[in-house]
Structure formats: C-alpha cells, structure tokens
Task: inverse folding
C-alpha cells in the first residue's frame, strides 16, 4: 500500500526536485521551507527512518529524483559512493572482493564494497549500501577503470592489472593468496593483461613484497623478460627471504633473484 506523505515530507521532496538536488545539508530545508532547526531535524530524521531519504553522514542526506510507489527508496551503489566521496572531496577506487567479482576471479558477490580512498577509513552504510573504506596515500590511487552505470553515475574500479596487484599487496585484508597467483596465470595465458601491464602496476602501486612475489610468479611461468627486468630494477638488495604464500610455512626452494621461498 502506498505510503501517505505528510505535508512537510511532500514539501521537502518537492524542494529537492525543484532545485535538482540529490544531496541536501542540514540548514537547506530550514531555509527553503522556513522551518526552525528543531523542525528540520525532526523532519530529516523522520524521512530517513521511514526510507524516503538516505543518510550519507551526520548532516548530509541523499534525496531520490522521485519517490517510488510505496514511498520507500534507497540509493543505488554508485549514487551512494559518489555522494560520500564528493562530500569528502576524495579520490577513490573500488578494489578487493567487489573487483574480484567484476573481473570474474570470484563468483561470490560480497556484502561490503571495499574502497581505497584518500580521505576516510571505516565502515559506512548509505541506505542499503554497505561500504568498507580504506584510506591510502594519494600516490597509491590510480590504475583505474571507469564504469558507467544504468543510473547515469560513474563508478571507479581498480583496473584488471591493478586489481591483481591489490590482491597480492593486500592479501591479509582480502584473503586472496594463493588464489591470486592462479588469477595472474590465467589472465596472462588468456591475454586479458600483459606481463608488462602487471609489472608496471606492481612497481607503481605495490610494495617490495608485492614486487618480489609477482616477479617470482612471472619467472616461474617464464613470462616476458622485459617485464621481469622492470621488476628486478625496483627490487632492493636484501638477504631476507619471504614466502610466496604468507599463510604457509616458509619451506621450499628459493628463487634467489627475488628472495622468495616457493612454498605453494
């Protein structure tokens, strides 16, 4: 049964539509509808609780372009993410399990969308959209693919090569090793990425452990010598050894050029 809107709710939705606003901050309804601060606060709280609008963060709300039949609305993923990131003036890219699913590495559709960004960390919920935000240095953002969504919004994903680097770099966060090595082998064999693309992404966005592990994988499959040379130039000389699979005992043969123990 359609929800019957009150006079103030109707006026608030009409104001947002008239001004072509998708987000409204505390104070805008008060001035636009001549409400007191208390009236505005109660109205926004009531509309958010009833599912007419979505709370982005304290004091910022997403409004629907039009309220669906039934009077309940939730923003799509792209609208929710872009509203939050725009409010923080942040750069971002979706990575981790959501990117793994997008590129066909995993069939599992995660409940949380993991986002690297340069502004905020923690878990947030905007409407029905659940987000895991990981703040990173600005120079770790890049290597992206922009995807136009049906809503007209654009989502920013880590590219295929960058996603593979993320899977090796952030293995403890994403529980993505040793599976990521199979993804790398399969993508190289199918021509979906090149060894040079992977090496460039590893050098630019990885750390020393990431570079050494990817170098070891490329050597084991005898991938492009030029790509391996790029990685070798980025490796700092060390006698310390690291396991190919960090969650397993560091026992097995050693690829000395990379200082990597082949334990899986």
Result:
């Amino acid at each position: 049964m359609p929800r019957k809107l009150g006079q103030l709710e109707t006026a608030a939705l009409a104001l947002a539509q008239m001004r072509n606003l998708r987000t409204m901050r505390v104070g805008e309804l008060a001035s636009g509808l001549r409400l007191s601060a208390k009236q505005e606060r109660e109205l926004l709280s009531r509309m958010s609780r009833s599912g007419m609008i979505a709370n982005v963060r304290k004091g910022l709300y997403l409004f629907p372009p039009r309220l669906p039949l039934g009077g309940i609305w939730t923003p799509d993923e792209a609208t929710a993410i872009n509203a939050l990131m725009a409010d923080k003036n942040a750069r971002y890219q979706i990575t981790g399990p959501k990117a793994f699913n997008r590129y066909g590495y995993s069939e599992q559709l995660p409940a949380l969308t993991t986002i690297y960004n340069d502004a905020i960390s923690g878990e947030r919920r905007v409407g029905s959209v659940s987000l895991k935000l990981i703040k990173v240095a600005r120079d770790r953002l890049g290597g992206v693919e922009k995807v136009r969504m049906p809503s007209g919004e654009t989502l920013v994903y880590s590219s295929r090569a960058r996603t593979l680097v993320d899977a090796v770099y952030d293995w403890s966060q994403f529980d993505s090793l040793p599976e990521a090595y199979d993804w790398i082998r399969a993508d190289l064999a199918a021509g979906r990425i090149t060894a040079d693309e992977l090496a460039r992404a590893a050098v630019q966005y990885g750390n020393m452990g990431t570079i050494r592990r990817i170098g070891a994988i490329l050597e084991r499959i005898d991938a492009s010598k030029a790509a391996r040379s790029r990685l070798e130039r980025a490796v700092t000389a060390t006698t310390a050894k690291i396991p190919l699979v960090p969650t397993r005992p560091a026992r097995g043969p050693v690829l000395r050029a990379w200082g990597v123990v082949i334990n899986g």
User: Anything to note?
Assistant: The chain has three domains: 7-73, 76-158, 160-264. The chain has a mean pLDDT of 94.
